Amino acid sequence: MPSESAPRRPTQAHARQPVESHSDPNPAVSVISPPKPRPPLRIIVIMKTIATVIVLCASLLLHAQTPAPKGAPAKSAPAKTGAAHTAAPGPRPSLLNPASLTAKAPAVFKAKFTTTGGDFVVEVHRDWAPLGAGRFYNLVRYGYFTNAAFFRVVPGFVVQFGLSADPAVNKVWHVAKIQDDPVIQSNKRGTLVFATAGPNTRTTQLFINYGDNSRLDGMGFAPFGTVVEGMDVVDKIFSRYGESPRQDLITDQGDAYLRANFPDIAKIKLARILPAVPPATHAPTGAKPTAKPSPKPAAKPAQH
Hints:
By secondary structure, this protein is α+β, with helices and mostly antiparallel strands. Helices cover about 20% and strands about 15% of the residues.
């Protein structure tokens, strides 16, 4: 880099040179302009740095706008995790959470009950009572009826069940009510129906009609299934305790109350959904046995 230089001064030899004289008493003086000073070194360095930065930025901008060659993998933006793009998982199915048991029932299905007195099978038709069929399907599927008792047995009228052996389960299902279904089928012998405590109060209690109880049709009791195998087992369910077991105490104390006070009461060991049978191989069951005449019961099926 050139160093800074001051304007040159005339040498002595130059000073001794003769000066041309003029007759003008005020001769013009010839002035030599000094050379223009160069910019300081610091300013030059700063300007070169700024130029370098501008060139670099322009190069990066040009590179960013250049499209990627064909076939090159494209970078994907990170996925958004907002609630609008991520579906929240539903609650895990549990008997302690009735709202989690909402699986849709098949159009037609069978459930097998293994009891202390034998087995019977019910066939459910969803179109008979969709809400009732759906509730029953979920109760069976998740083991609600295991060790549940037939706590009300009125020969010639109904056999009632549907209170859990576990008080904690009873507590949450006691308020899990479903709306009423229209009554499409009649309360004939062998039909499976939900008990109620009034309009739109169905929860878990069920009954099987022992006889032709068509008078219940007008009271809003909507059958959703019927016994297709083992009706003789249903007829023989232990009935000596009649209506003595208290539903409120079963609800609060569960199986402990029944074991202490009704040791011989009939119970459900297991209830399960049977595998579907192809329509081509599904054979209708035989004729239902004729119901024996019985006195008109004093009370309708109800849950307390």
